[in-house]
Amino acid sequence: MSTDTWNAVDDYLTATLVKPDADLEAALRDSEAAGLPAIAVSAPQGKLLHLLARIQGVRNILEIGTLGGYSTIWLARALAPGGRIISLEIDPKHAAVARANLARAGFANQAQVRVGRALDSLEELARESAGPFDFVFIDADKQSNAEYFAWALKLSRRGTVIVVDNVVRKGAVADAASEDPAVQGVRRLNQAMAAEPRVAVTAMQTVGAKGYDGFALALVVA
Fold it and tell me: Partner of 121 at 20 to 30 A CA spacing, among 51, 87, 89, 129?
């Protein structure tokens, strides 16, 4: 089955179930115009994140990896009244685009984009007692996934949902001999999640407009 088929199905699902959305489409356009890489989640994936967070009745969301704020908007729309989302982004240019996109979508007050190395920002959040977060979305450099997961767990509570994107790597995650740092980062993440008794976890392979990849889903149970 070809990627053309995957793209066609994603287009169909987006038009039928997700529906056109001016703010989200503008966020993608402005991100492209600013030269940001085209690595945001797809529309069906964004709505999946939104629904997972909405099911939780979230008031406090943490996102690691902002890019242009496309996924941030999806997640912000799931917030209960009075809720907030904190998103961590290493690149000041990306953060500026994201802030503008979030403001246009109406989330200037609910969404905070922090600039800096995510591991440093996570330590700052812990010092500030910013948690616990109800929902955590990890979509940053894959080499640090295990460390991001460890921090997410520290900043969570029982019932928190943690989603990690891009964990299949076109199937390369199954290759223990891979020399790709991103693949090895995902494998370390999987080992860390498998060894952690405080979470129940699974991972799913996906195909679509973003190619062949997948995500991990963890529920903090203790």
Answer: 51
Distance CA 116, CA 90 (A): 4
Domain ranges of the chain: 3-220
Would you list the DSSP string of 150-171?
Answer: HHHHHT--TT-EEEEE--SGGG
Read off the tokens for 69: 């704020």
pTM above threshold 0.85: yes
Strand partners, 112: 86
**87 vs 70: CA distance, rounded Å:** 11
Query: Domain 3-220 adopts which CATH fold?
Result: Rossmann fold (3.40.50)
Q: Is 83 strand, coil or helix?
A: coil
Digitized pLDDT (tens) for each residue of the chain, 222 residues in all: 789 999 999 999 999 999 999 999 999 999 999 999 999 999 999 999 999 999 999 999 999 999 999 999 999 999 999 999 999 999 999 999 999 999 999 999 999 999 999 999 999 999 999 999 999 999 999 999 999 999 999 999 999 999 999 999 999 999 999 999 999 999 999 999 999 999 999 999 999 999 999 999 999 999
The separation between the first and the last C-alpha atoms of the chain, rounded to the nearest angstrom, is 41
Task: Classify each residue of 49-88 as buried b or exposed e, where b means 16 or more C-beta atoms within 10 Å of its C-beta.
Answer: bbebbbebebebbbbbbbbbbbbbbbbbbbbeeebbbbbb
CA angle 79, 165, 151 (to 5 degrees): 70
